[in-house]
Design brief:
With 69 residues, the protein is α+β, with helices and mostly antiparallel strands. The protein has one domain: Ferrous iron transport protein A (FeoA) (SH3 type barrels). Helices cover 19% and strands 42% of the residues. It is built from two helices and five strands; from the N terminus they run E-H-E-E-E-H-E. It has a five-stranded antiparallel β-sheet with strand order 4-3-2-1-5. A hairpin with a 6-residue loop joins strand 2 and strand 3.
Length: 69
Amino acid sequence: MKRGERGRVVKIEGGFGLLRRLEALGIREGIKITKASAQIMRGPITVRVGNTEVAIGYGMAKRVFVEVE
């Protein structure tokens, strides 16, 4: 995704711990998210979930598959 693009989370690949951590941040399959910003060279990714902005690491972000709308 590029900055400002919206999409729907279609799949999250990872273990139980990753799924629980992302769910605690409000990121789960079927939810709409917007990419707010990203750092250069694998830095943290900031996404907007509803009215909340959360930052997740590059490793977590690459396991979240989003269908861009």
